[in-house]
Amino acid sequence: MNKIRKILYSLLLLAVFASTMILPKSYADELHAAVSYSASDIDGLRLGYRWTDAWQPLPASWLAAIGSPRVHYEAAINSWENTQESSERINALTFSPVLQWRLTDWMQPLYLEAGIGVSLFDEQQLAGRELSISFQFEDRIGLSWEYDRESKARVSLGYSHYSQADLAKPNDGLDLWVLSWHVPF
Question: pTM for the complete prediction?
Answer without folding.
Answer: 0.82
